Amino acid sequence: MTPRDRRLHTEYADMRQLARASSMVTFTVQGLPPTRYDVVLTCRGLVRTRGLLTQSAHHEFSLTLGRSFPLLPPEIIWKTPVFHPNIVPPRVCTGDIWYPGMSVAELCVQLCELVQYKSFNIYDPLDGTAALWLGANLEADEPVVPIDPTPVRDLAFDLDLRPRTAPAGPPPAEAVPAVPEGGRDEQD
């Protein structure tokens, strides 16, 4: 197996793990190992229809892992309408996001956070109108961003409430940091 094939297999495993940890990310693949991901996000974002901004919870894009991946980011083709400074379908600006060690799953998380308005760059936008809207919104007394505050990995919390064994006693003193009376650390 080539290093590229190993990376592609790892990317697929990471994407499956993301889909299990998120109610917002689903995908289908092409290739074995996959070199194309068709991703559907069900997070809330904005869409402009006939001059009015409305919310949409359905967003689609494809990621193609070309021969230069991971040195170059996957090719992203945005397929659904969205109103965001850094997305003008079919293009997405990944200049502030991508680095070669980033996984495709983490890129999907970042793209979902773009849609949710948790992440943005208004200083080098693809959509100047969206950047102006966002800039004005950020200066408002009560900004409406993020549009969707839900964590992308919203299903990742797994708590097993069954006791393993009887408690062994208190933890060692050095394992619990001391907090002086008044609730603040004296070094603050």
The count of DSSP E runs of length 2 or more, i.e. the number of strands, is 8
- Helicity level, as a percent range? 10-25%
Order of secondary-structure elements = HEEEEEEEEHH
Broad structural category: alpha+beta
Q: Rg, please? A: 21 Å
Distance between the termini: 53 Å
**Basic shape:** globular
Task: Indicate the mean pLDDT.
Answer: 87
Low-confidence stretches: 169-188
The percentage of residues in β strands lies in: 15-25%
Strand order of the largest sheet: 1-2-5-6
What is the count of DSSP helices, taking H or I runs of 4+ residues?
A: 3
The biggest sheet, with number of strands, parallel, antiparallel or mixed sense and barrel status, is: 4 strands, antiparallel
Structural summary, described in words:
This protein has 188 residues and is an alpha+beta fold. Strand 1 and strand 2 form a beta hairpin. It has a four-stranded antiparallel beta sheet, covered by helices on one side. A two-stranded antiparallel ribbon has the order 3-4. Strands 7-8 form a two-stranded antiparallel ribbon. It contains three helices and eight strands. The N and C termini lie far apart (53 Å). The C terminus is likely disordered.
